[in-house]
Amino acid sequence: MGGHFSIPEAIAIAQHLARALGALHQRGIVHRDVKPANVHLGDDGELRLIDFGLALSAADDPTERERAPRAGSPSFLAPEQLAGASASPQSDLYALGVTLYHALTRRYPYGEIEPFQRPHFGEPVPPTRYRPDVPAWLEYLILKAVAVERSERFETAEELQLALERGAARPLAAPRRQPLSARNPLRFWQAIAAALLLANLVLLYLLLH
């Protein structure tokens, strides 16, 4: 799967992936490697999710399910996987969101992530930054799918698929913007330190004059 896609094409791809992941998750299987390279268009015109080399099943040994949390393509791995947590249905849905984002923009919501890199996840870049024609309802859907916190994403593939089907008729609410202290703690404390320094300089000036 490559090249830029039209809005309807990208939505159709996301719907196929949501159905495929829904079927897998109902069987207790987490794919762990959802990305454009693993979306195959067959000669019959059907899109298929392929390459189950990293997939894990609920029937697997618990220690097996914990292995190699960072296995897969880094730019499509959910933040919790990059932090060492095991994969889950929500991490598959995160990868679906990144795949949809990439299909529309050829970019990544948090920038490209290299192997062994420890990225800092702030606010995702809205897809309209690169594709102004992306409708608001689709942008909100994508941003929900790629939320940093697992609890803020779609709970199930079926929920995501329903949101895709409803589209502009019943759009999702705009995502809440994180405060600066949450999305960039370093910058937050730098701003606090700068404000305190400025206040002290003003106070010193007043005392001397």
Report on this structure:
- By secondary structure, this protein is mainly α.
- The chain folds into 2 domains: 7-176, Orthogonal Bundle (Transferase(Phosphotransferase), domain 1), CATH 1.10.510.10; 179-209.
- Helix content is 44%, strand content 5%.
- The chain contains 8 helices and 4 strands.
- The protein has helices spanning 7-26, 62-65, 79-82, 89-105, 136-145, 157-166, 180-183, 185-208; strands spanning 29-30, 39-41, 47-49, 56-57.
- A two-stranded antiparallel sheet has the order 1-4. It has a two-stranded antiparallel sheet with strand order 2-3.
- α4 (89-105) crosses α5 (136-145).
- It is globular.
- The chain starts with 6 loop residues before the first helix and ends with a helix.
Q: What's the story with the biggest beta sheet?
A: 2 strands, antiparallel
User: What is the subunit arrangement here?
Assistant: single chain
Radius of gyration: 20 Å
Mean pLDDT, to the nearest integer, reads 86
Pairing-aware structural class of the strands and helices? Answer: mainly alpha
Order of helices and strands: HEEEEHHHHHHH
**Total strand count, please?**
4
Give the number of domains.
2
- Give the N-terminus to C-terminus distance in angstroms: 69 Å
What's the CATH H-level homologous superfamily of the largest domain? Transferase(Phosphotransferase) domain 1
**Would you give the CATH topology of the largest domain?**
Transferase(Phosphotransferase), domain 1
User: What fraction of the residues are assigned to beta strands by DSSP?
Assistant: under 5%
**Neighbour order of strands in the largest sheet:** 1-4
Number of helices: 8
Q: Uncertain runs with pLDDT below 50, 5 residues or more?
A: none
CATH class of the largest domain: Mainly Alpha
- Proper CATH architecture of the largest domain: Orthogonal Bundle
Summarize the amount of helix as a percent range: 40-55%
The best one-word shape is globular
